[in-house]
Amino acid sequence: MEEARPEIRATKSLAHQIATTLQQEIVQGELSVAERLPSEAEMAKRFGVSQPTVREALKILAAKKLVRSKRGPNGGVFVNAPSLTAASQMLQEMTTWFVGLGVFGLSEIVEARLLLGRTCVQLAAERATEEDLATIESTLEAFERSDISDEEFCRLDVAFHHAIAQATGNNELRFIMLVVNDSLIPATNMISFRFRERGRVVALHSDILDALRARDGAAAIAAFEELIAYQSSVYEKALAARQGEAPQKQGSL
Question: Taking burial as the number of CB atoms within 10 A of a residue's CB, which of 93, 121, 159, 179 is the most buried?
Fold first, then answer.
């Protein structure tokens, strides 16, 4: 019996519909990791479309990091292994956009970081390996250089919290924190860096690490809460300064 073709609707481009069908098959495990997809000719016959349309669908999947191309005699298009980093990058872009548009307010950002961060430091205090602690400490040591730029300071801030998320031993939580840290920390840092005291931030990070080394979850949570409270106060000060500068700029026109 001839295989039934998937229904193709005119409401979306054929390439997007094919990409959606293949994506579902990848997500549902019908196409396994590292499996080579059928040739363009075979897929064109399956979907009843031209090979250029199939090629466009594969480009859509490649942009989502779901497939990769390999050249040579044993080449073709293969299903990619899932990557927490690649997936988080896509969500990060959307989250950063929402922060920039003001869809996420300060109180929501603080609440989300507090709730998730408490869980991370608690688990890290219980589960962190010596290697995890060494990674966290390495970011802290880099913080203490006096010659680093604001951009590098922000990058290290993100790396510090990523290392704590890694130390939880929970990949689901780590994935969530990749999105949270990569989008919310830089977004708030861009506004508040002029009012931030680097020494204060580094000292609070050091308190968190000391608590993790001592396996003291309560102390780690307390230090983390103090860090978020300080960063929130700096952010509020920066926003107030911005609002004060706006009328002055308007008046000078």
Answer: 121
